[in-house]
Please model this.
Amino acid sequence: MKPVFRNLDDGPQVLIRFDGQEISLPEGANLAAALLAAGISRFRGTMVSGASRGPFCMMGACYDCLVELDGVTRQACQMRVEAGMDLRSGGADV
Amino acid sequence: MYDLLIIGAGPAGMAAASTAAQHGLTVAVLDEQPAPGGQIYRGITETGPRRAVILGTDYLEGAALAEGLAASRADVIQGAAVWDICTGIPFTVTYSCNGAPAHLNARALILATGALERPVPIPGWTLPGVMTAGAGQILLKASGVLPENAVLAGSGPLLYLLAVQMARAGMPPLALVETQSRADLLRALPKLPRALRGWRTLLKGMGLLAELRRHGIRRYQGAKDLAVEGRDQAEALSFSVGGTRHRIVAGTILLHQGVVPNTQITRALRLDHLWHAGQRAFLPQTDDWGETSQPFLFVAGDGAGISGAKAAASAGRLVVLQAAHRLGRIDSLLLEEESTTDFRALSAERSVRPFLEAAYPVPASILKPADTTIVCRCEEVTAGQIRGWARAGAMGPNQLKAFGRPGMGPCQGRYCGLTTTELLAEVHGTTPATVGLARLRAPLKPVTLGELAALHPKDD
Model:
């Protein structure tokens, strides 16, 4: 079953890219939360086995929601949505 | 140079900062999140009226603390990840804000870094769609986002609160799958008389249970052998109750087995720690005021032992009074006068904990998971590997790292350390207290080489 997250709030949307796919997200929202609400559950593959991972702790402690922005690997749960972000799945995609 | 530096802007940190400012101390607060509140009051400064109704009155109590912080003259730096601390007088704290590193100096340091969810290593707990119950709450508080097809699983009052909040938002969970049993409750009953000092907390718990029933949320108790099924994504939670296997199809599984003190900083600083058998966790050793084995270094709130948000705010005020006294800013008469109420409140809040710890115990199968279950999420190390390396001669968590890197990924053992210690204790027939936790070193959070280089003057 795919996870379905619903956003209780409405706000102005901006376009970003995630692995080349164009997605509309609420501007200034927490990036991990916004990606989940947009139907993205797999944020990255692990370095060890390539296993799929998504947000786990949402507080900057678990490092499972890693994404890549401008060549730097960062925690999606510690970022805000900005127009034109070009994100890639974090970690090594095996 | 500040008189006082506070790390963390949860209930303890916010209360500490406003108290310090009231007593004329110069204060800086470093907090990792974009706004104050910590995790318990996450998003408190941005909550609209609709979310306030969903989250409830306990949550809204955080607003007064946040207003106190805003009204104080404390320098509050949000989005600051602390990654190094040098002890001594002064303390030097190094942090990064948006990838830019900086230092701050202070005469006294207060750690108010709160709690982490206890790891819940069950089969499939690394799959996308599996999150902590705390993460579910953070999604709601900070972003107004909730899962529609979720199961809440594990044990502890937070599950009731989250289930009720989800129901109020019109998205009740599919079910609550709880690991504690009636036998656990019976075993906890002798601790109830002492817990009555914290009757308000108990009353709130009963209110939540009544609201759960009103919403018709299905509860399973005494659940065993929890497992998340799915290949690339959580698809279902399966479990047994009284010999019958159940399976609930769900896209989101929110796990919880209580919270444990976040000891990353106190351990990196090699302060003295104690094993708390009731909380099954390590706590930094402090005196009644919260001062650690390092003079002028204090811990306040859940980071010093789990007692909840109200206790944390009291502890935050108390550490500041003592710090102000130790810095020669207030005399012992004022110290005693100003601290009486908070000591009394702290003691009442703490009286409930032994009952809760006994009523919602962590099952042995989660403390010491089956061999095929992943323990270290970052390095994908299983319980079987850890047991094997322990039998092969790894005596402690530091030595274990050389065998297969458990605890050496980016989370630095935050979600595997306690499990690894329990497994080592099991194999060697000793206690977690004897095994201890792995040694930590700076950087306390991963930093880029660019951040390290930026700390040095360019014209060197």
Notes: The first strand of chain B starts at residue 2 and ends at 7. Chain B touches chain A through 56 residues (CB under 8 Å). Chain B has 19 helices and 22 strands.
